[in-house]
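Summary for the steering committee. One of the milestones for this cycle was to obtain a three-dimensional model of the protein with guanosine-5'-monophosphate bound, which we needed before selecting residues for the alanine scan. The sequence and ligand used are listed below.
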Amino acid sequence: MDTGYPRLPTDTDNGLLLIISGPSGVGKTTITRGVERGIGDSVFSVSYTTRAKTEADTEGVDYHFISDERFEELEQENAFLESADVFGKKYGTRKRWVDEQLARGRLVILEIDVLGAQQVKTAMPDAFAMFILPPSEEELLNRLQNRKRESEEQIQKRFAEAKREIAFAKESDVYDTFVINEDVDRAIAEAIEKVAQARTAQGK
Ligand code: 5GP
């Protein structure tokens, strides 16, 4: 079979795919990076996006920033494991890279939205899906306002979207587990513990 990546004699094919989702402002990126640092054989999947690069972003580390045309080409080639429109921009996960890392036996971390998570769980039911929750909706609104990144109108839009995402995550059967981010260090420790349990349960 042509997998699109080189097979190694050391490949074990027993990697675990970890999905981390959560509304904006919940601290998902900090938790994701904390889990990545805390688990030795983990790798973070750098997504492809058509959104503009900001000063806080590093190409190839946070995202691969590509044009709408290139994104469409990759879609046509079936290069994405999942893709979704988030706030009017496209985001996608490269399938070949994920498959290669899973073959190497790694913990592969996807930080993706709820629609992407649903697609991945359908394609790969063994994926372990985690949703990060704020301690309360009021606290999430406070955090969005304290970031001072956006206008009040944009903040309210993100807050409304966040509430929809949380409701969807709770109602759907996409997520295997929920972690409340009250204290970020404790949330990271809890996430790492849950991943360890999932790996043991799946023999990975
Ligand atoms: P941001 O542009 O603020 O970094 O991310 C916006 C949203 O897009 C976040 O909810 C993030 O989890 C989601 N996202 C990032 N990469 C991907 C991806 O490859 N696929 C999907 N479906 N969502 C993504």
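Key point for the committee: Residues 47, 51, 82, 84, 86, 91-93, 111-113, 115-116 surround guanosine-5'-monophosphate (CB under 6 Å).
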